[in-house]
Design a protein that fits this description.
50% helix, two-stranded antiparallel sheet, globular, 2 strands, mainly alpha
Length: 151
């Protein structure tokens, strides 16, 4: 799975907001904390606002905050808000793919890949990630001997 720069920045910004929740944070504060370009961050926050993940308050004391408590917001929600569906095959959702011959069973594999990704990103909240208290099944994945090895 490839995580886009937009997805990475969105999750990092959401984690900063989760840490400060319910206090408002300015884009400048988030950009400085996470070492990211402010203009790009503003575009990412606009996507998160349109998706209902964050809310904005204008003015001198304005900024951004999560629309819901960090325990109610998942990493998957944040990623979808900026990048769309988690898994795609040539622009199609996995269940929309169709093949013939030797590849006829390939849609099952693509659906399984999506289900595996969902099992991680849709089951980890911002609160769990900030605190480091990941669900047991996610911790187990990171503890596998080859989990941290590149392939």
């Amino acid at each position: 799975m490839q995580i886009s720069a937009r997805g990475d920045y969105a999750v990092r910004a959401a984690l900063s907001l989760a840490t400060a929740y319910p206090t408002l944070l300015s884009t400048q504060a988030i950009a400085a904390e996470q070492d990211m370009p402010r203009k790009f961050l503003e575009a990412v926050l606009a996507d998160l606002r349109r998706a209902g993940i964050v809310r904005a308050q204008r003015g001198a004391e304005g900024g951004y905050t999560l629309a819901r408590p960090p325990r109610e917001t998942t990493i998957g929600q944040v990623l979808r808000a900026v990048d769309g569906p988690l898994a795609g095959v040539r622009g199609l959702r996995p269940e929309e793919t169709q093949y013939e011959g030797a590849a006829e069973n390939l849609p099952r594999l693509w659906v399984a890949v999506r289900a595996s990704v969902r099992r991680v990103v849709d089951e980890v909240s911002l609160d769990e990630l900030v605190s480091g208290r990941l669900p047991a099944h996610v911790r187990k994945l990171t503890a596998q001997p080859d989990a941290w090895e590149p392939r």
